[in-house]
Amino acid sequence: MDAARSNGIDSPAILLPIRLRAVTAIVPASTPSITSAISPLSRVRSAPPPVIGIVGGVGSGKSSVVTGLKDFSLQVIDADRIGHQQLRLPAVRAALVAHFGPQILDPDGEIHRPALAALVFGDTPPQQAARNTLNQIVRPGIRSEILHQLQNTPLHIDAVILDAALLLESGLGPLCDLLIFIDTPEDLRFQRATSSRGWSLEELRQRELSQWPLDQKRAACSHSIDNSGSLASATMQLQQILQQVLSPPVPSASAE
Q1: What angle do the packed helices 90-100 and 113-120 form, to 10 degrees?
Q2: pTM for the complete prediction?
Q3: For the domain 3-80+155-246, what is the CATH superfamily, name and number?
């Protein structure tokens, strides 16, 4: 069994060419991109566009790197946003309160994410048990919404970007045709987590203890982006990867 499949992830090297060979015609883009400018690669497909999973550590800048793309017509599925929406559903909120108690609610009666996070992030047995319970309550709805969005993806776009903090841990890897790792040094990830989320280094590490080790994530991906420099540099690397995998195959000359 290869490394990718041992982690529960289909090999992207096999899936992606099959999906791209389903391209039937190149046509001018006639509608705006869902997330970016109209792409010269826009085309009519006989199969759904490829799904590209973005993987990285906490605070690695995955979303920022994706947001910088301008030359493709992309549909971005933000699993974290879907997760936040799930927490606002009355049935989900009631199930969480029934298990964790009313102390996870804010003054408005909504789920207070920092209070919930303190219970579930970390490597102690109580935190692991609480995290398993949280996952059992929330993940089915997240996965259902992701599948719904994938099933309703317009055929004219170039690709679907699946941006999920726990993409591999939650078993979403097999939905992807390609996995790309955003490789960001710990000091930069801490700076970003501190400035954007107000986390301490301990909070960052507690969350990382709840995820796959970075080496395991990196090994599950077929491509890696060096995000130790500028955001523009990381975005350019991602753009080059997409150009490589999304370019229409060149027909081979038939033998005479």
Answers
A1: 50
A2: 0.77
A3: P-loop containing nucleotide triphosphate hydrolases (3.40.50.300)
